Amino acid sequence: QITLKESGPTLVKPTQTLTLTCTFSGFSLSTNGLGVGWIRQPPEKALEWLALIYWDDDVRYNPSLESRLTITKDTSKSQVVLTMTNMDPVDTATYYCALRPYHWFDPWGQGTLVTVSS
Amino acid sequence: QSALTQPASVSGSLGQSITIYCTGTSSDVGNYNFVSWSQQYPGKAPKLIIYEDNKRPSGVSNRFSGSKSGNTASLTISGLQAEDEADYHCCSYAGSSSYVFGTGTKVTVL
Asked: Is A52 on the interface with B (CB under 8 A)?
């Protein structure tokens, strides 16, 4: 069974850097073709793809947020970490990580709500 | 990379069929056979129900079907049931290992 779970702070201040960890089980991110992505969803709004890291360490970012994002992986710990700099209240959202087996996302983690407020 | 366009809401009566459209461009929806759809209940994570335009994962009801024409993909729910009331999101591969999601559609069962 494949599971993913996000962890990190629930509250960050404006201008701070957010660090989120996705801990997964049931697969290895060293498996050819696999990727783990981060997607966010502001309250009552649409999903937005943020970043992806692939089995071969290739990384991809949403062009509109690329300058603020860094995604890394620790295969031995079965973790993927996303950092987002210069947080703003508009970044308040539920942040999800998900497995990208091919050109879709499944399954997803339960999500973690991050609020940006002073 | 703009979000794919979906209607904000669609409603239908029990037993009816409804269709949700997802409009992109020739750079995403129209260029690849990689549109997926997810179902999301309030406070829950999205769940994949269609991938590669029209394929259903194991365990997903055959009342859900996907199709595509040009730059527009569609999700049809036939025999609408109360448990189908949820948000539905499309997603397309957009090239260069990037992805774009739709604006999301709230389905209401009357």
From this structure: yes
How would residue A28 be classed by pLDDT, with cut points 50, 70 and 90?
very high
Query: Smallest CA–CA separation between A111 and chain B, in Å?
Result: 7
In this predicted structure, the answer to whether residue A5 has a pLDDT above a threshold of 90 is yes
Inter-chain CB proximity B46 and A105 less than 8 Å: yes
pLDDT at A102 over 80: yes
Q: What are phi and psi of A57, to 5 degrees?
A: 75, 0
| SS3 category, A77 | helix
**B47's tokens:** 């769940």
Show residues of chain B in contact with A104, CB under 8 Å: 34, 36, 48, 51-52, 91
Query: Which pLDDT band holds residue B1 (cuts at 50, 70, 90)?
Result: confident
Task: Give the position of tokens 């997607």.
Answer: A39
